[in-house]
What does this fold into?
Amino acid sequence: MAAYILKRLISAIPVLFGITLIVFLIMAMIPGDPATAILGAYATPENVAKINRDLGLDAPLFQRYFIWLGNLFTGDLGRSYSLNRPVLHEIIERFHATLVLAGSSFVLCAVFGILAGVVSAARQYGWADKAITFTVLIGISIPSFFLGMVMILVFAVRLRWFPVSGMYAIYGGGDILDLLRHLIMPALALAAVATGVVARMSRSAMLEVLRQDYIRTARAKGVKERKVILGHALSSAMVNIIPVLGIQAGFVLSGAVYIEMVFQWPGIGRMLVDAILKRDILLVQGGVVFVAACYVLFNIVVDVVQSLLDPRIKS
Amino acid sequence: MIQFLNLLFRNRLAGLGAGMLVLILLIALITPVLPLPDPNITATADRFMSPFSEGHLLGTDHLGRDLLSRLLSGTRLSLAVGVAAALIATVIGSSIGIVAGFLGGRTDNIIMRLVDMLMAFPYILLALAIVAALGPGLNNALIAVAAVNVPFFARNIRGVTVGLANKEFVDAARLNGMSNGQIIFSEILPNVLPVIVIAMSTTIGWMILETAGLSFLGLGSQPPQADLGSMLGEARAALITFPHTSVVPGIMIFLIVMSINLLGDGVRDAIDPRLKSGALSRPLPATIVERKEVPPTPDKDLLSLQELRTEFHVGERVYKAVGGVSLKVNKGECLGIIGESGSGKSVTALSVMGLVASPPGKIVGGTVSFQGKDLVGASYNELRSLRGDRVAYIFQDPLSTLHPLYTVGDQLIEAMQAHRSVPQKDAQARAVELLEAVRIPNAAQRVKNYPHEMSGGMRQRVSIAMALANEPDVIIADEPTTALDVTVQAQILSLLNDLRRERDLAIVFITHDFGVVAQLCDRVAVMYAGQIVEEGPTAAILDDPQHPYTKRLMACVPELGGGKRELHAIAGLPPAVDQLPQGCAFAARCEFAQEVCRQGGIMLEPKGERAVRCLFPVNADQIEVTL
Ligand code: SF4
It folds into this structure.
């Protein structure tokens, strides 16, 4: 087990390097002098001279990458000029909010997606299957940002069940209940598409597995149908569902950008959009690398879970 | 192509999607000639007019601009940008994929590494980075969305190309002196084009949505130009006070994406061949029963089948897999059922406990009675309580019939606990005992193994142990030795034989090998095209086969118990069970066939202990003559 985790961690190293290189090259596409681009409105001669010195921006491209990478290793992602604070501090603070949102959405999409897929497959062509298939179709077709707006109109404005936006109430909020009240709508809106995709994949994975010979064996043994579906069939189907969950985690993580805008959620997605509009390049660069790296690491977790489930992987 | 379109439109939802999409496209196309106000003319006096106001069917937005005309021009723009992004991503991605797949080697390696790295990014994040570098704007959003989709096309198309690059026709083209470029355009491209089109049709919805999303964030189209996304983004400020300005563009995006999704699903279903045969149906826990009349249940035999009929209904076709089979087996007895593949012997066996995959299978007539109880009419719960407890199965290929993710020990324990509550500890001990009983060495260690860690012979022993777990009265073994090599086969057969003696088991043994029958079975039934054509004590039938088919089957066995042989020595094929001939089903392959054989159904004529379904049975003398 430990050997497998180590192997996966080592294999992630080149990918992490690749990510930094790609982000660096994209950012190098910015036309004009990098120092002025990074500083934007703050490009006073002193600032330009300082940043050139700090980041080695007058060096050739190749060298600049390694200077940046070296800084990255020491946790120095530079300084955000629009916010006037270290990029890393801002990222960590914002990422925490995104993690709460995306994490709960991910749990929602995994639980409800798999549940819906299993019920759908077990009751194929029955009314439950049809209802689920229809809901899934709507779910994967509705843009999350529009869904979020509709939810605000219905549940916050009309029914007054939930607050319109934000993460905590401004006055007197701050506890976990307050957070939950603010979290429910954005988490559901963000989870909708992913839940639909997971439900679809789970349904077809279950149908595929239910036709296998070992399911017939389980039935021939007299195993109860509930156990055939939830034990024998689902455990095998999970082997195909887990990679889908890994991919959906990426969609949830990046789809959070829209939801954070709609619900004024103080997460990293909103930070990125603001940074792009303010041309705060270092903040964008740092944010993208950080989130992408987290996603790569998350995928290692997915692979490890997969190997725990499927004894054939390790051998 | 016609067939494909038929399949596509048989799917009503896909048709609906196509209809909706065509309608939206048509409206988008004719928008410029419609008598609508200019979408960009502002009129501050007319801000936020509600829908159905005079002159503004959908009302106006925060600057007093006509919403309907903005909606239509926004739709045009969103569609155009989405399609453009899809085209760019398709062309660039597919080219990269074809080049990588065709050239292979280093080039392929480097390109695919890069593609993998790009795919390691959460999708929208990469688009954001590109927009950040290029600056906000519709063109840049388009480039970003196209760029993040390139790796997807590159990977998919490369996969297909690699498969083609080694085909003969490519080698032939190379020998004819064609250059790589020529081969790609004349041989590879036409073959990957359908895949490219499908990949594009499944992603175009995404790309429309994504460009709209970037515009929504304010990173795409900039005012006054507006696509659906930026309309929605601008309207957000007035979401609570004037929701219609948000709802109108939102619903349009939803309709576009849904129609594309519906159509895409239809395309996928029409292409996926598994769906055509209805094979993606999940089998129910027990076979569907649709019996017209119920014959009386005989009560003295342990297990008996009376006029059993099982059919497969696939679309319009009806395959009569089992066409009226009567059999019986008693304690300590071994009954062989022999026939070619497709003769209905396995379906007969599976029908006993309602294990025929259903849909498409159905039991349409006859009875299966176990100790006097009719199983065909039994409820699922009654069936389940007998399955594996009184009547157990052993199947052919133990690699696919054992669960790959459970240890063999757990599978044995489950077999016991399905029928009685056995404490975990006792069950574990019993599992080891069972493995010892089927002569698996080192049983205490072996219980912890997964099926893939065992050899084929060992796995089959596990299946046998599992069948024995509840000390059943009957074991139905469906070609349990076919996948094994000769020595292992002999060991398994003698093991089964010993177990039968020791435990007074009744065994129904299904095989296509007379050698196996000779070794193990007291009586044998020969099946052909879903019916028994000859039945009787094994020795008598081996000595004196009376049905021409039995005789031919026996002639195929060079030595007894030989192992994996298919019955290919008989000329011709059995009739398809959805097109059975009128008279004798074997007539087309029979050397003794006469005109009368083809005229009407032939009865299974009993003669003492034996029975044969033939108008001109072969006897010993005739064998001499014909040889
Ligand atoms: S009935 Fe006629 S055709 Fe059929 S097996 Fe006998 S001899 Fe051959």
